[in-house]
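Researcher: Structure for this, please.
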Amino acid sequence: MTTAIAIFMKTPGLSPIKTRLAAGIGAEKTLEFYSLCVGAVKATVGAVNASVFCAVAEEEAVDSAVWNSSPVLYTGEGDLGERQHHIYSTLLMDYDNVLLIGADTPQLSSSHLEAAIATLHYKDFVVGPARDGGYYLFGGRVALDRSIWISVPWSTSATLERLEAALPSTPRHLPMLTDADRADDLKHVLSEMPSAPHERQRDVLEWIRRNTSLAVE
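Model: Predicted structure, token format:
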């Protein structure tokens, strides 16, 4: 089976970056942290047998040197549902299954991704629940109508619940992780890191140690 993984991200300088996190730690530190998160997630994904795409929120970023290490897709206009529908349906035309992830879970491990891909051998859908009620990963092997994506309320505690209710079959759940959306989320990022983090994940851990009062073992 062939797998495509799309990492949804925003381009620094073209879109606001993690505004809720910036409200807690400042815009400059947030940009530093986000860049490290992107590096960690891309390193994790790069260790998996899959085709990797950067799904960017800005059309003008498609040819940006910032993302030149991976093929870049423009997500299109609209809310997150519209954008995910566009990327998911586009990639599913060329791949057996598709995983959609964000760039704000640097603790994501290759074992999470491998489990998701393995699940899609026998299930139509797999999700990675996020602590805030959303999800850090969505994977599928069958097409979904646009109406399903646009029926979901985004950035609420009911996001995953509403998505699951709209899906034609029940997805398998991966372990819960925390999206780094707010300053208070950083302690969960620490506790959820793999026991043997790779180099880019260690960079994230060190950054948190230097820039917050949280201890890193």
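Researcher: Any notable elements?
Model: The longest strand covers residues 3-9. Residues 26 and 55 are 25 Å apart (CA to CA).
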